[in-house]
Amino acid sequence: MRTADLIAVGTSFCITCVMLPIILRIAGLYHLHDPAGPLKIHTTPTPRLGGVAITMGLLAGIAVSGVAARALGMLLVLLLVWLAGLIDDLVGLSPFVRLMVQALAGLLMWREGWSPRTGHAGWDLVGTVSLVVCFVNVFNMLDGADGIAAGVSGIITVGFIFLSSSDFDPLGRVVEFSLLGACISFLLFNFPPAKIFMGDSGSNVIGFALAVLVLSSYRNTSASHVSLVIPFLLAGLPLLDGAFAVVRRLWRGMSPFEGDRDHFYDLLLKSGWSPRKVAFASYALACAFVLLGLFCRRF
After folding, report:
1. Position 223 pLDDT exceeds 60
2. d(CA 82, CA 145)
3. What pTM was computed for the model?
4. Which H or E run includes 139?
């Protein structure tokens, strides 16, 4: 681990940790809470703007690294994704508007040169947009129980850190360590019983940041079949949960964007597992997928 990595993870951790009590205070003053409801597991209103602190921590970690000027386009797209999530948290957005913003984010990333680099511009565009839309939505679905989204995202980020090695793009390394610091810091407030939720502004940013890491890995590795699959193995838990959710909802005649309480963590909670036990089980599953992905790197 280099000095720049330590600075990025330390800065993002500290800024997120400092901002969260402030966000809690503001949420209390202005009643910015996530109310209880039929699709909620909490029984009392809980602040849900933790994504503001996560995003500020992530941006701070990148800003102090010295590579922010090279990432200006990506950072502006990240802010677009965050703003859409924040508006959704405060007043609500239709699924169509959310999807259009995500697709626009993918288009802008492609314009900035972030793509799978298949050798065909059209496929690069489709791949980039699909990747961004997919990751933003599956991590939004993952954020349905205390401590899961932040903890699993942190574990996946560690997987990308091991995958990247010392010859990785410096910008990718900074995003990795900044995201890790923000996730760990947020988990201190979100581990069961959660004091605050990240909301869509947090899950959208985390999903987008991990999509950036996937695209960054494609820009810095050989285009073999194994190298294309490994990033998806690292994020296997949320991707599989999201895929099953879409299939399940379509099978039931529901919209893929219509929420339900049949995710893997919901089933564990329904079976009587405590929220902390479910969180630890989720971390174990995420670690298994990460280890599988890193093992496949040998082939």
Report:
1. no
2. 21
3. 0.94
4. helix 121-142
